[in-house]
Amino acid sequence: MAAGAAVAAEAAAAVAEVGSALQFEELLRLKAKSLLVVHFWAPWAPQCVQMNDVMTELAKEHPHVSFVKLEAEAVPEVSEKYEISSVPTFLFFKNSQKVDRLDGAHAPELTKKVQRHVSSGSFPPSTHEHLKEDLNLRLKKLTHAAPCMLFMKGTPQEPRCGFSKQMVEILHKHNIQFSSFDIFSDEEVRQGLKTYSNWPTYPQLYVSGELIGGLDIIKELEASEELDTICPKAPKLEERLKVLTNKASVMLFMKGNKQEAKCGFSKQILEILNSTGVEYETFDILEDEEVRQGLKTFSNWPTYPQLYVRGELVGGLDIVKELKDSGELLPILKGEN
């Protein structure tokens, strides 16, 4: 009897796999009343395989949570719908709606998010206080994440409300360097920051961790010409790209970094460069949308990865493969050609 129960528990703890958009939509409908955690993964990425193991363990600990893996490149309709640009990425669903997201192979953070969503709304007082303390620490880190931080609805590229759109336009007009946080991606931050800053609406702009205010305040500061003295200026993009492409003798602009490629093409080019023994640096374009878009125009090259030697574009994966096959790659990387 006990052995049978153990087998049943093990079966319930299995991580299901989704192979089509139709299957995914059906799953959202079937699991509407429970927490659904979806891992967008790729079989070529070792960090994804590791996170699948983490999911299996979490499934054993939380039998009432549904854990699913979906191969991102095999089901592009779903990946594009939810703006999956790298793997691993985890989405959390409740009532068929996305409620949270985690990008990257962060096992402790994944565990925390699962626990948070499982127990939301049913905390004993002491646990609630502890979580509130953790949230305040997190909000402090987020507001200090960059010299100028904008908490908004959506992203600077795709604002999802008129006030956020106006705020981004003002900051861009004044060439202000800022990072942003999409409050739609994290409900806990969205609600917690209102209390933390004692400011009930969005967008919210912070400089050096201090709240400056919302759109009306920023408009007043712009009108009084104080905005330029408060917020840090961004270097011109072309100057920045020149500096970045010359940061090392050999520079690779890719999805991910040396330790963790986040697309198949970037992984292949890393393997080729590593086989040469030449030292090189990388830049993760997923971390900086301005560089990601700007470099395409700067180099007149529309895709990634992009390889530069002494500030000059060599090309993408296909060019690098051709150079390797012809024996020309190593001399070029060493600056001999």
TrEMBL record:
One of its GO terms (molecular function) is iron-sulfur cluster binding. CDD domains: GRX_PICOT_like, TRX_PICOT. It is found in: Cytoplasm, Cell cortex; Cytoplasm, Cytosol; Cytoplasm, Myofibril, Sarcomere, Z line. GO terms for biological process: intracellular iron ion homeostasis. Keywords: Cytoplasm, Iron, Iron-sulfur, Metal-binding, Repeat. Residues 1-119 form the Thioredoxin domain. Its main location: cytoplasm. It holds the Pfam family Thioredoxin. Together with BOLA2, acts as a cytosolic iron-sulfur (Fe-S) cluster assembly factor that facilitates [2Fe-2S] cluster insertion into a subset of cytosolic proteins. Acts as a critical negative regulator of cardiac hypertrophy and a positive inotropic regulator. Required for hemoglobin maturation. Does not possess any thyoredoxin activity since it lacks the conserved motif that is essential for catalytic activity. PANTHER family: GLUTAREDOXIN FAMILY MEMBER, GLUTAREDOXIN-3. Homodimer; the homodimer is independent of 2Fe-2S clusters. Heterotrimer; forms a heterotrimeric complex composed by two BOLA2 molecules and one GLRX3 molecule; linked by [2Fe-2S] clusters. Interacts (via N-terminus) with PRKCQ/PKC-theta. Interacts (via C-terminus) with CSRP3. Interacts with CSRP2. This is Glutaredoxin-3. The lineage of its organism: Eukaryota, Metazoa, Chordata, Craniata, Vertebrata.
